[in-house]
Amino acid sequence: MDLYFILVKPAVPGNIGAAARAIKTMGYTWLRLVAPCDYLGQEARMLAHASEEILESAQVFAGLKEAIADLDMNVATTAKTRAVRVEYFSASEIPGVIRAKGNTVNKVGLVFGREESGLTNTEIRMCDLISSIPMKQSYPSLNLGQSVMIYAYIMASFERTEPEPASHSLDQEGFRAMMHKSKKVLKDLDIDRNPALYNRVIERLASLGEDDIHLLHSILKRYLK
Q1: Which range of residues forms the domain containing residue 8?
Q2: pLDDT, tens digit, 9 for 90 and up, residues 136-156
Q3: In a domain, 162, yes or no
């Protein structure tokens, strides 16, 4: 599995550098930046400390939609409790959720929001799961670099056994394809006209394991045919 750390509109170069250092320390490589500040300047490099190659190889995108377009599953991280009903997974639960997906995902994105305001509701809805770091005190909150470090540590400590070769292409039988087909069916059934119900169904579909994903593929293919 390839894990991509995605920072949306980071405004402090030092935070990007600290994130790069956390990513390398935990053995990861991929950093993506959405409309970032100066991520190659002295401040960022100083905080990166021996992780400059992570900064230099970072991919830059204009928007989150473009940054996650080629990924199989994306996890939005947030410290805020939203007014609408959403299902949150703690940071420590994310590895188990990914493990349950088996061969249906190969590329996973962890999405982090702005230092001051986090991710917008629209950006969160672009992702498949919502995760937060449980804290005993709501303030002071963790900064961006600290949040990346915690998720990187948790993911690195998760030993994923080598999966059997996938019997189907992810383009046809993977998690992302299942979500795409499901959205078509929900629209066909006019469920998308009820945003609360639609979003709740999407949330529940995103938590399915590998066996249920393949089962749902069979049902969706027959319906769409």
Answers
A1: 2-156
A2: 876 767 899 999 999 999 999
A3: no
125, 156, 187 - which closes a domain: 156
Tell me the CB-side half-sphere exposure of residue 222, using CA atoms within 13 A: 5
Q: How many domains does the chain have?
A: 2
Which tens digits make up the pLDDT trace of 10-29?
A: 999 999 999 999 999 999 99
Among candidate residues 120, 121, 113, 122, the one with its CA nearest the CA of residue 142: 113
The H or E element that residue 175 is part of is helix 175-188
Bond before 13 cis per omega within 30 degrees: no
DSSP assignment, residue 71?
-
Dump the DSSP string for 124-135: HHHSSEEEE---
For the entire predicted model, the pTM comes to 0.88
Task: Flag whether 69 is in a domain.
Answer: yes
Instruction: For 74-104, give the DSSP string.
Output: EEEE-SSPPSS---EEEGGGHHHHHHHTGGG
Cα angle, residue 131 at apex, residues 112 and 44 outer, rounded to 5°: 20
